[in-house]
């Protein structure tokens, strides 16, 4: 079926099977491999992208469900190779080790930061519980987000 | 009646996957014909034609992983995203009519929702799940640990089921048959949940291993009605506990013991039946107390 998306500010049109999952479209056909696939069943959050500004799990959506939507992947954060504020904060606070979960965290955090709402440490821990990180213990990630809310 | 394997989407065994590559990418679900009706009339016509060979797709937060793991293999999939009639929230007197495709996130932002619903919504998955998951999808999926089936029973809601044959209202108690089983007929589509707006405040609590996980057990109380969920095969009203409260009984060890007696609990890998019964009773006591605090506080 015909599918039209805006991905990271550029229009993409293509013919896709109904059963193609959004995460696989992004990785296999658009070669946006920054979106990581961990559990592929909605648990780990590594595949989080923004659909019309809202953080969703791209493994839990058919590509066709995003027809006509604007998608942002982690690649949109540093279009000219300059780290964004949150990416720089991640680096500074050592908020990643292996980095597998990082794209998902960055996109979930992007929705939170873009909302303009401020969260305290406890609230952020709750909001980020949908992204699984097995390296950092979350504390440096919370530090990085708190810094970017200022 | 639609039925799928219990908690099937939690399965970790991916060995039975038949990973097939089509031009330009991996596809996980088994083949199906994709339908995207643009109106309710069209949707009813499609579901009427294919019946139990068809699965309606709402937000997909449970169905998509089941498709991806091929635990669900419908021949036809009907994506409801373009059916605008299903996205409305309308207040009519003391009833909130919630369209089946209204997302948990939309309800989080709806001022009219009863306070007990507002308390329960943050327990539904994580915010990324609430951005996609829908009220109707949660009800139709009927996970015994899910919040909407429990809230529906607690508030005395009805499900509006429509087919080309006509429309009917199904009380929440009749709608929930068992795990992943509802009273919907194969040609029926859930269009709305009718939520009677309660007078006072209520209480809601659940125990989960981590924030956002499925409830091991949960409980709610509203205007003398007491519901426990996640313990047995479907949300359960606690008649004896309700009677105790009606007769003037107060929260305390006695109430907790009565609740523990009547809670139907099953054990699994996540928690034993005994754990669910005792913890459920403790939660019941807590939510009854919460609902009283609301009443006295206002």
> What is the helical fraction of chain B, as a range of percent?
25-40%
Q: CATH class of the largest domain in chain A, anyone?
A: Alpha Beta
Q: Mean of the pLDDT scores of chain A? A: 97
Largest sheet of chain A: 5 strands, mixed
**Annotated CATH topology of the largest domain in chain B:** Uridine Diphospho-n-acetylenolpyruvylglucosamine Reductase, domain 3
Share of residues in strands of chain B: 15-25%
> Biggest sheet of chain B, in brief?
5 strands, antiparallel
Shape of chain B: globular
How would you describe the oligomerization state of the chains in this entry? heterodimer
Structural class of chain B: alpha+beta
CATH topology of the largest domain in chain A: Ubiquitin-like (UB roll)
Q: Using DSSP, what is the number of strands of chain A?
A: 5
- The secondary-structure class of chain A comes to alpha+beta
Instruction: Give, in spatial order, the strands making up the sheet with the most strands of chain B.
Output: 6-7-12-8-9
Secondary structure topology:
The complex is a heterodimer of chains A (about 150) and B (about 300).
Chain A: E1 2-7, E2 10-15, H1 22-29, E3 48-51, E4 54-57, E5 70-72, H2 85-92, H3 102-114, H4 121-127, H5 139-149
Helix pairs in contact in A: 2-5
Chain B: E1 20-22, E2 25-27, E3 33-35, H1 40-50, E4 54-57, H2 63-68, E5 76-79, E6 89-92, E7 95-99, H3 104-108, H4 115-120, H5 127-130, H6 135-141, H7 147-155, E8 158-163, E9 166-171, H8 172-175, E10 176-178, E11 181-182, E12 189-196, E13 202-208, E14 215-222, E15 225-229, E16 236-237, H9 239-246, H10 253-262, H11 273-297
Helix pairs in contact in B: 9-10, 10-11
3D architecture notes:
- The complex is a heterodimer of chains A (150) and B (298).
- Chain A has 150 residues and is an alpha+beta fold.
- Chain A folds into two domains: 2-77, Ubiquitin-like (UB roll), CATH 3.10.20.30; 85-149, [2Fe-2S]-binding domain (DNA polymerase, domain 1), CATH 1.10.150.
- Chain A has helices at 22-29, 85-92, 102-114, 121-127, 139-149, and strands at 2-7, 10-15, 48-51, 54-57, 70-72.
- Chain A has a five-stranded mixed beta sheet, covered by helices on one side.
- In chain A, α2 (85-92) crosses α5 (139-149).
- The termini of chain A are far apart.
- The model of chain A has no long low-confidence stretch (mean pLDDT 97).
- By secondary structure, chain B is an alpha+beta fold.
- Chain B folds into three domains: 19-79, Uridine Diphospho-n-acetylenolpyruvylglucosamine Reductase, domain 2; 84-196, Uridine Diphospho-n-acetylenolpyruvylglucosamine Reductase, domain 3 (2-Layer Sandwich), CATH 3.30.465.10; 202-297, CO dehydrogenase flavoprotein, C-terminal domain (Enolase-like, domain 1, 2-Layer Sandwich).
- Helix content of chain B is 32%, strand content 24%.
- Chain B has helices at 40-50, 63-68, 104-108, 115-120, 127-130, 135-141, 147-155, 172-175, 239-246, 253-262, 273-297, and strands at residues 20-22, 25-27, 33-35, 54-57, 76-79, 89-92, 95-99, 158-163, 166-171, 176-178, 181-182, 189-196, 202-208, 215-222, 225-229, 236-237.
- In chain B, the strands form five sheets. Chain B has a five-stranded antiparallel beta sheet. In chain B, strands 13-14-15-16 form a four-stranded antiparallel beta sheet.
- In chain B, a hairpin with a 2-residue loop joins β6 (89-92) and β7 (95-99).
- In chain B, 50% of the residues are buried.
- Chains A and B meet through α1 and β4 of A and β2, α2 and α5 of B.
């Amino acid at each position: 079926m015909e599918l039209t998306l805006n991905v990271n500010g550029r229009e993409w049109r293509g013919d896709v099977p109904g059963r193609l999952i959004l995460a696989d479209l992004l990785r296999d056909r658009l070669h946006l491999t920054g979106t990581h696939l961990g559990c592929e069943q909605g648990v780990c959050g590594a595949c989080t992208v923004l659909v019309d500004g809202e953080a969703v799990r791209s493994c839990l959506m058919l590509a066709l469900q995003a027809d006509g939507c604007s998608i942002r992947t982690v690649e949109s954060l540093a279009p000219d190779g300059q780290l964004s504020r949150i990416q720089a904060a991640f680096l500074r606070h050592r908020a990643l080790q292996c980095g597998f979960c990082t794209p998902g965290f960055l996109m979930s955090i992007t929705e939170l930061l873009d909302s303009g709402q401020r969260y305290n440490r406890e609230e952020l821990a709750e909001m980020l519980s949908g992204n699984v990180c097995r390296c950092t213990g979350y504390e440096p990630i919370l530090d990085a987000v708190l810094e970017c809310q200022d | 009646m639609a039925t799928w394997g219990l908690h099937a989407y939690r399965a970790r065994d991916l060995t039975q996957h038949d990973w097939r590559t089509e031009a330009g990418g991996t596809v996980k679900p088994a083949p199906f014909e994709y339908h995207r009706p643009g109106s309710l009339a069209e949707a009813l016509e499609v579901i009427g034609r294919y019946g139990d060979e068809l699965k309606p797709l709402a937000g997909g937060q449970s169905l998509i992983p089941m498709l991806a793991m091929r635990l669900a293999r419908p021949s036809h999939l009907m994506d409801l995203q373009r059916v605008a009639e299903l996205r409305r929230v309308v207040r009519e007197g003391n009833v909130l009519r919630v369209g089946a495709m209204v997302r948990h996130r939309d309800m989080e932002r709806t001022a009219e929702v009863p306070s007990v619903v507002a308390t329960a919504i943050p327990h539904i998955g994580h915010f990324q799940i609430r951005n996609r998951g829908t009220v109707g999808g949660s009800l139709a999926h009927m996970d015994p640990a899910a919040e909407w089936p429990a809230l529906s029973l607690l508030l005395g809601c009805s499900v509006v089921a429509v087919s080309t044959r006509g429309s009917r209202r199904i009380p929440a108690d009749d709608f929930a048959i068992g795990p992943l089983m509802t009273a919907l007929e194969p040609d029926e589509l859930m269009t709305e949940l009718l939520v009677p707006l309660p007078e006072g405040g209520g209480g809601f609590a659940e125990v989960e291993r981590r924030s956002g996980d499925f409830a091991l057990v949960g409980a709610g109380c509203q205007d003398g009605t007491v519901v426990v969920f996640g313990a047995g095969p479907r949300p359960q009203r606690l008649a004896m506990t309700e009677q105790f409260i009606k007769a003037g009984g107060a929260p305390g060890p006695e109430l907790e013991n009565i609740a523990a007696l009547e809670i139907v609990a099953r054990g699994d890998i996540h928690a034993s039946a005994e754990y669910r019964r005792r913890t459920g009773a403790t939660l019941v006591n807590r939510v009854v107390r919460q609902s009283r605090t609301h009443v006295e506080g206002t």
